[in-house]
Amino acid sequence: MSRKKTMTLFSLVAMVALLSLGLAYANWTESLTVTGTVRTGDLSVIFRGDSSGTNCTVSPNGATLTVDMDGAYPGKKCTVNAVILNNGSVPAKYAGVTLSSVPPEITVNFTECTPEPTNETLDVGQAVRCTGTIGVTEAAHQNSSYSFQVNVNVTTP
To answer: What are the residues whose beta carbons fall under 8 Å from the beta carbon of 114, sequence distance 6 or more?
Structure first.
């Protein structure tokens, strides 16, 4: 092949390569963007005001249900009907109750809920009625005061 033909061929290949490069840069591009905001909700349950029992009072913020059992004696029991309301903005899952500081002079049973919420979800605004019993044992002394605490536990589903 002559030198002139080689140079022509090389020039032609170089021109085709440069044209291809130019076409590649001539392609238009565009991109789309996704933006967003995530706002979390509020997990909140309260004792509703229509809870009842022997001298039951609900605190103004609904966080505490106080039970006063006056004039108690061995064998006496009282029943507490606690209405637990999901007043948050997300569903709440009932996770049971925890008893603490229960002296041997009294018994506390706070597990019966209707409908039974165990493994159930309380939707926003939904309430469940739970029944508890407090009893006085033979170990109780006259003119004494005994305290206890029941925690109703909830989680997000």
So the answer is: 128, 129, 130, 131
The distance of Cα 95 from the centroid of its chain, to the nearest Å, equals 10
| Partners of 92 in beta bridges | 122
Task: Report yes or no: 101 and 147 within 8 Å, Cβ to Cβ.
Answer: yes
Average pLDDT, whole number, for the chain? 82
Rounded Cα gap, residues 7 and 105, in angstroms = 110
Tokens of 8: 């022509």
Question: Which stretch of 38-42, 113-117, 122-126 has the lowest confidence by average pLDDT?
Answer: 113-117
DSSP states of 83-135 as a string? EEEE-SSS-EEEEEEEEES--TTEEEEEEEEES--TT-EE-TT-EEEEEEEEE
Tell me the pTM: 0.67
Q: Return all residues near 89 (Cβ < 8 A) that are at least 6 apart.
A: 41, 42, 44, 124
Distance of alpha carbon 121 from alpha carbon 123, whole angstroms: 6
Q: Domain 45-155, what fold?
A: Immunoglobulin-like (2.60.40)
Coil, helix or strand for 46?
A: strand
